[in-house]
Amino acid sequence: MIPLYDDNPTRQTPFVTITFIAMCVAVFLYEQRLPQEAAELFAFQYGAIPALIFGQASLPREAVAIPTSLTLLTSMFLHGGWMHLLGNMLYLWIFGNNIEDAMGHTRFILFYLLCGILAALSHALTDVGSQIPMVGASGAISAVLGAYLLLFP
Predict the structure, then answer these.
(1) Mutual orientation of helices 15-33 and 105-125 as an angle, nearest 10°?
(2) Among the four residues 19, 40, 80, 111, which has the most C-beta atoms within 10 Å?
(3) pLDDT (tens digit, 9 = 90+) per residue, 83-106?
(4) SS3 17
(5) pLDDT of residue 61
(6) Distance between CA 31 and CA 40 in Å, rounded?
(7) 54-79 residue pLDDT tens
(8) Of 78, 66, 75, 67, nearest to 116 (Cα)?
(9) pTM exceeds cut of 0.85
């Protein structure tokens, strides 16, 4: 099922939702412009890698761009392909605006980022030795969908 809209109008402009979408699209377009090798390095630098998070592996010093714990945050703004990006952004646009409207801008930022970090950490726990970068906003958007189901049954 692919939703195209919902029937819940908002009272305020969803600035945060629009900003998150713009950030994801900007990062994806940047990554698409990189040569293949640089794009792979980018994913390893900013994607959340379970083995790094749990101290079971390490990147070469020249490949480290940020502290490993921050990749739980940055990984939410990377996507693995056009369909991954478009699907996530569609759901964020349709449902995120109502949750932002209900929570307010600041609480929505905290909710979205905290849920995204917890989702990435939870997924990383399923295979703590994995050296494959996890990318995408699916965990945060799943939390938005859960909130939407609770607030707009």
Answers:
(1) 50
(2) 111
(3) 999 999 999 999 999 999 999 999
(4) helix
(5) 83
(6) 9
(7) 988 888 887 889 999 999 999 999 99
(8) 75
(9) yes
